[in-house]
């Protein structure tokens, strides 16, 4: 709406914005924007900024870019990735601006590329958030008052620009054009797809029907049908025309 045409935080130009994401919480919706200067959170009307978090560049070298990338909501938390590999977890109140930085997750050593979440649906020890970085490393978390690192899925020398989470399945798109499907709770690789001739740019999911979309630098977009075998529980995937 109109708020996006209005002024940003002083000193932040529209060209500086790095990521924009609607965060749908159980009790409110916030619009989260990132830039090299910090993280802004707006009410859903886009007009009222309720929180500003400045990025601390103290740990960065003079030639290192400072940025935030990867935004996702889980329960009453919003997680935002940073250039340092740390993931900032913000505790969001039911209403008002009393947002606090509750935790910093330290599972990564290289810049965060993407974060994905899905509702935990009341299960214990469930993996409901996955974070990805420039080395291709994935970290799988259980959200809560204290986030718990459940497993690490090692990278293999290429970045993971995009990651999604669906019914306990991690879909990860890599810089070599491959899409990997992992079991979230164990980190086991179930399916490896040579999806694109060049790097994956983005993945998206239609969760109600289990369809995964992949877009690559080869200018192609592919759609895949995800499912689980009723007999083995194994992850299955098939391309859609």
TrEMBL record:
Please tell me whether the keyword Transmembrane helix is annotated for this protein: no
Keywords (A to Z) from UniProt: WD repeat
Domain WD repeat-containing protein 54 beta-propeller: from-to ranges: 11-238
User: Quick check: keyword Acetylation in the entry?
Assistant: no
The record's section on InterPro entries has: WD40/YVTN_repeat-like_dom_sf (IPR015943), WD40_repeat_dom_sf (IPR036322), WD40_rpt (IPR001680), WDR54_beta_prop (IPR049546)
Judging by the UniProt lineage, the source's domain of life is: Eukaryota
Swiss-Prot/TrEMBL WD repeat ranges: 193-227
In Swiss-Prot or TrEMBL terms, this protein is called: WD repeat domain 54
